[in-house]
Amino acid sequence: MPVSDVASKSLFDMGKEERNEEREGLLSGSQSSQSQCEKGEDALHPAWSRNRIVGVAASFILLLICGTFARSLACSRGPYYHPNLHFHGEEVRSNGTHDFKRTVLIISIDGLRADYLDRGLTPHLIDISKQGLRAKSMRPIFPTLTFPNHWALMTGLYAESHGIVANNFWDPASNEEFHYNLEASAWKPDWWFGEPMWETVGKAGIITANLMWPGPPKTSSGAVPTYFIPWRDRVPLGEKLEQLLSWIDLPFEQRPQLIMGYEPSLDQAGHATGPMSALVNKTLGQVDAFAKDLHTALEQRNLTDIVDIVFVSDHGMTDTSHPELVYMDNIIGEEGLNLIQHEDGWPSMGLRFYPEANASHYLELLHKASDENPEKFDVYTHETMPERYHFANNDRIAPIYVVPKIGYSLTTKAEGNTGMSKGNHGYDNKEPSMHAMFVAHGPFSAVVKALHHGRSLSARFLSRPNKGWHSTSDDTYVMNTFQNVEVYTLVMKLLGIEQHAAYTNGTVGFWDKYF
């Protein structure tokens, strides 16, 4: 029974009892009337009237409180209204001095492992996650490498679908090698499959800006971002902040609504000194200060209800300062090593043997070694690759893939541990240390937080009705871990252009409950 009905019934029953008492007083005969008269007029009304007034007043207050809460409960569980609920790309809002359309900033902090946020070194990212929302973690695609995952974030596709299957790999169709750090190689449009969000947004007639996001300046269809600044190493965070704000400050007709930015310093620190190092902690603080400066600048421009900021990362980082080495020449011999034509996908080894080699023989040797040492590495072919990797249906993926477990590194006797970093990634994407972060703040996350807060209040009331309801000091809405191929669709929904969205490997309707 609704709370308001309970309150109404109590008031009705009280009034009914009072009316019955009055009726009994009038109809109970002369004896009762006589006894009342004998008490005298002064004794007839005062105490009885006070009790009646107090009872009616108390019932009215109870009815008012219960009715108010019932309305709040209904709102929190039913259709919800927030001024930002239907704020999409075409609506124009004023910040007080200038007109703006809804704008999305997506900023990638390379190598920011999800649990870095629990170190107490990122007060601003934690603060805006309390104002907005945060995911427990974001699961990268396999392999957990920079270029495959940044293109997954842009396109919503797994590596087998978008074609960037490692940071370095060989393509048998073109007979060419992809090198992520060589513009002449990596910027060729034909490497990159799928439709990045900046291409989709451009098709919808929306201006875009790209600040060093890993990927090409032009897609195979010829699409380009409106503004594009190519990768340069060691660019100060302050310089990047100035560039982002310069785009925000452009005149209305020239201003981008989708802005992408990329920062690699944390990943570089993790590789150089390991994820638990002082350098990583220092860099983490610098990245958080950058996020705070960006948010402060938007506040100064009165844009926090107009601009959504989505902070993401591509993968995590694990300690590799003292790995146990797995020597491939101990498994397939010196002869087998010499018959490898192409090797892809470090820290995994994607192996392509020369045509004259007996690849089946070496595959058998690898399987035997893996079966004897299952804690060290796995060996897969396209047919045996775990389905959850979505890493088989593309000829760019080597036919034999050796994937090390956390704590192990694949090498040869000649190489040993030469060139190995103190921290690395590229391992199984279900490993917590490989998971990325997701924090959002702005009009979208404000709606999600308010809706979640209302639902939490109603849930607490319904589960503990005798204890009433109260506010909570834990205002952070933490989403469950989700896969990074969902981010593309989020941006489409934020800008109100879902009808233009390309096909993705994301979950249909994943974000619907948040809108």
UniProtKB/TrEMBL annotation:
Keyword Calcium assigned: no
Molecular function terms from GO: nucleoside triphosphate diphosphatase activity; ribonucleoside triphosphate phosphatase activity
Gene3D superfamilies linked to this entry: Alkaline Phosphatase, subunit A
Pfam families named among the record's database cross-references: Phosphodiest (PF01663)
Annotated region described as Disordered, given as residue ranges: 1-41
An annotated GO BP: nucleoside triphosphate metabolic process
Name the record gives this protein: Alkaline-phosphatase-like protein
